[in-house]
Amino acid sequence: PPYTFTRLESCLDQPVDSDVHEIIKYTPSPLPAKHYDPDTTEPISSGLETLEELLLWKRSEANPFNVAAFPLAPRDPPLASSLRRTLVSHDMMGGYLDDRFVQGTTAEAPYAFYHWQHIDIFNYFTHRLVTVPPAVWTNAAHKHGVVVLGTFITEWTDGAKICEDFLKDEESYRKVADKLVQISHCYGFDGWLINIENTLSEVAVKNTPLFLRYLTDQMHERVAGSLVVWYDSVINNGHLQWQNELNQSNSMFFDACDGIFTNYNWTEQNLEWMSNYGAVQGRQADIYIGVDVFARGKVVGGKLETNKALEVIRKHNFSVAIFAPGWVYETHDDKTEFRKNQDKFWALLSDYLYVHRPLAPLPFVSSFCQGFGKASYWRGQCEAEKGWYNLSAQEIQPLYYHTELEGQGWLTSRGCPEDAWNGGSSLLLDGLIPAAHTSPVSAKTLLAFIYKQSTGITVSLELKTTDANTHAQDVQRECLQLELCDCVLREVYFNIQRDGEPQDTPFSCRVGEIMLLDAASLQVPQELVQGLCIYDVVWLRGAGTSPESTNPCLLLNATLHWKYPTELVRHFRVYWQRLTGPHSRILPGPLVLVGRAYSNVFRVTELAVPDAPGLLELVVEPVIRKGFSVPESHWGRRRLRYTMT
């Protein structure tokens, strides 16, 4: 029987106030290496390599950690009404790198993406048969209202064999489509890029549009807001001939799904021709013109001239598919300059990208964490001074940009890892107010209450709502109360004004956190963490010594599962506490932070504990979006007793 659900059900059957008793055995981990690192038992994301593996896939054997914790947020404007869209296809170094670690990992200079308000669709691309997006990407994208697509790809001779097998008849292609729908629904992402890059037989090419139509219909039925996009590759006679446009040779595939992603070697003449092609009419937004940022082959733009490609594409009113923007990371040796290079690249494109905003009810909160950092902060204090990466920790991002002001003044907004309130970065506003500039410098972002500023300036806040009113407030207070009715908060500006006489005034303001609360909701009763379970325990011996023993450390690895409404929380803090050890002189220890969880499941890995016999407690604290602390009586607790026999 499936290991996960059997052991979880066994745990759920235990009384919540009883101890979990474990007898220590040093046996190989029973957890599947596909979902758990074989050395540490850390949960990892992965794809599927073969058609057999796909057809045998079962929801009961899925990776419980790779399920997205955040549903797709609604957005303004809705994707359906966006006439010129932006798709990003993330193809970097084979995929499943640092991002494969579902709970994050240590990393000194990782790749991340945080310009979500400029893109509409995110595709995670590898050359495996089935690419399941890592949950960390889906979580970050969904918070910003961005659709996430996995990839189904066949290539070369092996790909042709796979296609002949699953496209031979209706029963076969429906089985594959059904599995793709089930995988997307299970893991919480929003659709597929279908890429058939091999020749097809007459029967297979005839069945391909039928496969696409069935897959698209089933996805729309099961997953709200889902998309199926076809890559421009094989054509209607079964030959592999990239067209670099939509035309009579590939329109049969386009007609059967939600869109087409063209190959990269187009010219402006291709776009001009398509503008008048009958199959395009009414569906121009569904045609994503491919742009390879690496500029391989004969292409328009690419690299730091990618903006030239976008200029031509937008001139003809098409959507764009930006392939491999990780170029800014891969090709620059100094990875510590990544943020600078990333911001420079997306600033070049910004004139041809269209901003959308996630829609969310109150409370709204963001610390501007980008999902990685040099250290980890909690309420302004450094908790761990080491590089880390976890895109699930990324919070709603502001607009990042550089603006020139009259009189050689300027303003920049960017993520700053040097100091933070929560997570790994803060929002840094810096610039120069020239002597001749008398009006406030405005930085458009969302809303802040925790900040640090340089001397010689005053910082105030300006809110703009859909009722066309402007609400200006000074930020010098800890908490502001505004009366707003029947409106939607669209934008918040920081106004930065010079104090004193006119002179060139350099400034900086580091914003640590913003929070918008509905005062009426602050009295809502708080929920309890319920049903905390401990299961899938694996014991290891690690290098090093514990204070109580000269032997290598005893390492606990275990999965925790609990119940709590995830829509109420930013994350959970998971702790452990030593209650007793092998010697009576060992006193109960303090609560020690193990890590942060972004869903109701967490894997404790390589936790050094006292030698057996011992008793410890695992504790889960919800960090709620309303900002105040949840009393300890509402936390989840479960004791684990362990012995050698």
What does it look like?
The chain is an alpha+beta fold and 645 residues long. The chain has an eight-stranded parallel β-barrel, surrounded by five helices. Strands 14, 19, 20, 22, 24 and 28 form a six-stranded antiparallel β-sheet that branches. Strands 1-35-34-31-32 form a five-stranded mixed β-sheet, with no helix packed on it. β29 and β30 (552-563) form a beta hairpin. α5 packs parallel to α6. The two termini are 27 Å apart. The model is unreliable at 1-6, 444-449, 470-476 and 544-549 (pLDDT under 50).
Provide a short characterization of the protein structure.
It contains 11 helices and 35 strands. The longest helix is centred in the N-terminal third of the chain and has 21 residues, at 202-222. Keywords: Cytoplasm, Glycosidase, Hydrolase.
Helical segment count: 11
Q: What class do helices, strands and sheet pairing give? A: alpha+beta
Tell me about the largest β-sheet.
8 strands, parallel, barrel
For the termini, the CA-CA separation is: 27 Å
**Strand order of the biggest β-sheet:** 3-5-7-8-9-10-11-12
Beta-strand portion reads: 25-35%
Give the overall form.
Answer: globular
Average per-residue pLDDT, rounded, comes to 90
Helical content stands at 10-25%
Family: Belongs to the glycosyl hydrolase 85 family.
Function: Endoglycosidase that releases N-glycans from glycoproteins by cleaving the beta-1,4-glycosidic bond in the N,N'-diacetylchitobiose core. Involved in the processing of free oligosaccharides in the cytosol.
GO cellular component, one term: cytosol
InterPro entries: ENGase, ENGase_C, GH, TIM_ENGase
